[in-house]
Design a protein that fits this description.
two-stranded antiparallel sheet; about 60% helix; three-stranded antiparallel sheet; globular; mainly alpha; single chain
Length: about 425
């Protein structure tokens, strides 16, 4: 909204300073600061409101240290996160950008599913909340929306890299890389593509259509049979991974902030012609605008951490955790970095795998030996370390350190091939 206003003021009246809104870096910084202010302003008031309404967390007795102290802590704090993401994005982003529209849909959709779950738990006093099958159905619907738009929309394109012989110094194109004999540049004509980024490989692009090339000529038109189910799987996996990680004060919030910073860097370089060419990576027009959204996302997570750090004054509930994971998944898919998710979302992956391993091994050993056995003392993984006697603050900080290491590794993959 403000972008359009100041663009008009700059064009019509040459309003002093209005032109600064043309810069993504300025609007991203403004979105980050605004998001932090919103969490500070809304957070305190919403926590007070939730306490007055006795919207407290019902905690199962798992025998963990400090667990009983969490009982009654206000939940549904994810509303703070959603407000701190949506408001700055609506203010500072270009709202006609297809990527911004798509990520806003994902935010509202998953936030609504999480809110329903929390509402049923808190106000209807049903501990199970929204049935798991309905959550998954909601995630599948979002996956279908994202998958079909990404695959069929003419506004979602890439600019492919081509080789052009260097004729003379005067023919150089700004933002190109002179390799001596050839100059690497991007094709001026954007194209629809099912290519994505694959890390640690020299020509770091992978085309999903190659998976069905064995079907012969014309097989490429069936690539959606691979792409769309993959999108659905990624959204379900990452969304539930964030949900499982939300078990210790500040863990899911801080981890999501670290992932958000990583995605901000990846989105900015992928949407910048000159930087994409310098790094020899895929150039995706218009994705630079996503830096504004993800800046608001990071600001919301950091601001919420003010209240959610140990000892937590408020929990995000499924309203926040399902949305955070889904946002990360959809964002990574849009900037074509979904294959890198196991790296920068390594914490979520470990939490997911710990539950899968625990449940699978328990069922297998119970069927084979008559008594179920466990891989971990308790799952998800962070509870295993609690059972080993580590204080939750130490667990959270160490998970943060691992998350930062994974984030650095993800960014390094831009050149490490």
């Amino acid at each position: 909204m403000l972008y359009n206003l100041f663009e008009y003021l700059d064009t019509a009246f040459n309003f002093p300073g209005a032109g600064v809104f043309q810069y993504i870096s300025f609007r991203a910084g403004a979105a980050l600061i605004t998001s932090l202010f919103i969490t500070m302003i809304i957070g305190k008031r919403l926590i007070g409101f939730l306490r007055r309404k006795q919207v407290g967390e019902e905690v199962r007795d798992l025998g963990l240290e400090g667990q009983k102290n969490k009982k009654g802590t206000p939940t549904m704090g994810g509303l703070i996160i959603l407000a701190a993401i949506l408001i700055p994005t609506l203010l500072f982003a270009k709202l006609d950008n297809i990527y911004i529209i798509l990520i806003l849909i994902a935010t509202v959709w998953l936030g609504f599913i999480g809110f329903l779950d929390d509402y049923i738990k808190v106000f209807r006093k049903e501990k199970r909340g929204l049935a798991g099958k309905f959550k998954v159905m909601g995630q599948i619907v979002l996956g279908l929306i994202v998958g079909f738009i990404m695959y069929y929309s003419d506004n979602i394109v890439i600019r492919e890299r081509i080789d052009r012989e260097v004729v003379s110094q005067s023919n150089e194109v700004p933002g190109t890389e002179n390799t001596g004999e050839k100059k690497l540049i991007f094709n001026k004509t954007p194209v629809k593509s099912t290519k994505t980024t694959i890390p640690f490989v020299k020509n770091n692009e992978f085309d999903y259509s190659s998976l069905i090339s064995w079907m012969g000529e014309g097989a490429k038109k069936w690539t959606w049979l691979i792409f769309i189910p993959l999108v659905i799987f990624i959204i379900i996996a990452v969304s539930n991974g964030a949900n499982l990680t939300d078990g210790l004060d500040g863990l899911a919030t801080g981890t999501s902030a670290i992932i958000g910073i990583t995605l901000a860097v990846l989105a900015y370089v992928s949407g910048n012609y000159i930087i994409a060419d310098y790094l020899n990576i895929m150039y995706i027009p218009k994705t630079g605008e996503l830096a504004i959204y993800i800046s608001a996302f990071v600001g919301a997570c950091i601001g919420f951490l003010w209240y959610n750090s140990y000892p937590a004054q408020v929990f995000m509930g499924d309203t926040g955790s399902l949305a955070l994971g889904g946002i990360i998944a959809v964002f990574a898919i849009m900037i074509r970095k979904e294959i890198m998710i196991p790296i920068f979302c390594g914490i979520f992956l470990a939490e997911n795998l710990s539950v899968v391993l625990q449940v699978s091994w328990f069922k297998y050993t119970r069927r084979k030996f008559g008594t179920g056995r466990r891989v971990f003392k308790m799952s998800p993984l962070h509870h295993h370390f609690q059972m080993l006697g580590y204080h939750e603050s130490k667990i959270v900080i160490r998970f943060f350190i691992i998350g930062i290491m994974l984030a650095v590794l993800s960014i390094v993959t831009l050149k490490l091939r």
